[in-house]
Protein: Histone-lysine N-methyltransferase setd3 isoform X2
Organism: Abrus precatorius
Amino acid sequence: MEQLYIGLTSSTLLTSLLRHLCHFRSQAELDRYLEASQIRERAIERINNVIGTYNDLRLRIFSKYPDLFPEEVFNIESFKWSFGILFSRLVRLPSMDGKVALVPWADMLNHSCDVETFLDYDKTSEGVVFMTDRPYQPGEQVFISYGKKSNGELLLSYGFVPKEGANPSDSVELSLSLKKTDGSYKEKLELLKKYGLSASQCFPVQITGWPLELMAYAYLAVSPSSMGGKFEEMAAAASNKTTSMKDLRYPEIEDQALQFILDSCEFSISKYNKFLQASGSLDLDVTSPKQLNRRLFLKQLAVDLCNSERRILFRAQYILRRKLRDMRAGELRALNIFKGFRNLFQ
């Protein structure tokens, strides 16, 4: 029988890190390391959810039964730690309609972006199993997939960032916002709210491109009041709550929409550049070895995440610039041809 190696090297480190990811010790620390990435907002949301859940339980249960739930055990720090363990070790079982479970030892399997193997429940054996997608040699580490997640999601839930360019499912959240100076701002905002969106919305951008929803939002953001009759279909398309506009295009404002996305993209790139340039001087004032090690560890993860997300934005920037250049060159050629014809008849 072949022995297959299950990697355990990240276990203690991962638990420790997730504890900190679930609760940065201050708002300033969150801003310090995740200021450039939109994953910061997700981290804040998760922190608030954990704290809110604890406060609710403390009010309704813990405080009423202190003998059963002594504060030295059932406190906010241990609660956050427990949630860190839970977030990092839950296994979703597809054959059981996506139910989640804690599976001892199986949660020690490390993730690889190169495999599609996952854990699932087997009715025959009445246990959780997985089938490898390739042969393994004796002593070789076996990997599974934690799912098709971005590097930011992997950092937030599992405490690591894959090597730059190694994750085909990687994406970066690009934030687009309506301009309050837009004369149709209120009308557009009401329509966005109708479809569950807001005046500032994030969309995933991958190395291969961006979704229709992002383009629809950009069309809505730049559309003039004369296109008011199209506002609702743009808002619906931005929310993916329509099936009739698979190839949404408005040629008369496509240039402005692409420029709008490019401006947002370049603004995000500037934030990544600023953080990466400043990261070298971060934490130089820390004297405690324990605190320094932790901060350097978190900083390196933040730098790795920023590099991977900025790489995607650089690609999007290149594509957008090329599209705009080609469109504008085509418009210029068409204008020159028109002028030539007009001169013939003068």
About this structure: Confidence is low (pLDDT under 50) at residues 1-24. Residues 18 and 84 are 5 Å apart (CA to CA). The longest strand covers residues 171-177. The beta strands are 5-6, 90-93, 99-102, 110-111, 120-122, 127-129, 141-144, 171-177, 200-206.
